[in-house]
Write the structure tokens for this entry.
Amino acid sequence: MIRKMVFGLAAMALTVTGQGLALAQDASAKDIVTTAVQAGSFKTLATALKAAGLVETLQGKGPFTVFAPSDDAFAKLPAGTVETLLKPENKSRLIAVLTYHVVPGKVLASDVVKLKAAATVNGQRVDVKIDGDKVRIDQAQVVTTDIACSNGVIHVIDQVLLPSALNIPETAAQAGTFKTLLAAAKAAGLVDVLSGGTPLTVFAPTDEAFAKLPAGTVENLLKPENKEKLAAILKFHVVAGRVFANDVLSKKELTTVQGGVLTANLNNGVATINGSRIVATDIDAANGVIHVIDSVMLPPSAPVKGAHVAPVAAPHVVYACPQTNHVTTRWMPARHRR
């Protein structure tokens, strides 16, 4: 009954037993939840969907693509994890976990293998990696594919996917290289905004980026009397919504919450935003995404002489394919490394 993905050098072939084909054909007349329940190996998932109030959603029109952890996959979680998630007080966290397994639209196996990442209903993205004859979604291996349902498709995975539970400031703090940015956000009164539920994209200058500013600039900006100017500078680094790296490059221009416009460029495979080199991309947070830059960007109304000095060699440089705009080098905090 299990259909495994086998990849050649140029194409992917799916081998399906007659019994498995019959299951797929039978399931195609039923919605995702009904198909999972009747399979008999997704009891924990079904229980979780009910506790999260997502049954009706996944029985809706869709279409949806569900990377479905089996009961064995849930059993791999640390003892007590499932029981904790099923408690009423943890419903929001449970919803975040389950929606991280759902991608809008019907994405068949032949389409999955063409992707590097996929945006989930949760808002965060899962990574897609071809590892020899295996396909991985984040760290989970796809073990069965293309179970057709009336409102989408199911791919079975062998581990539960866990999205980031940290907000933007918490993610930056864990990285350990954004101390100045976090101090500035606190001084500007922006920590609550950056920690809220509204999705945001932050182009985050590192401590080294702030150190490039003329001597005394940061100290002056942190003074209470300069709070408004500091807030304007920081807001110039923030864009509403989740804007992942490929979209940054395709959009070319992004309007910040400060009101100014950021311009993205791709030159000789190196991505920049308003002249600052993008040195890391797509660091997921529970409420948005972080892209790391090597210089502080200043809005036209807040010039600081020498703000953009010649960049020092970065330990990680982002290169993007001129044809696809796909960023090929990625850095992230240790907790998020695949």
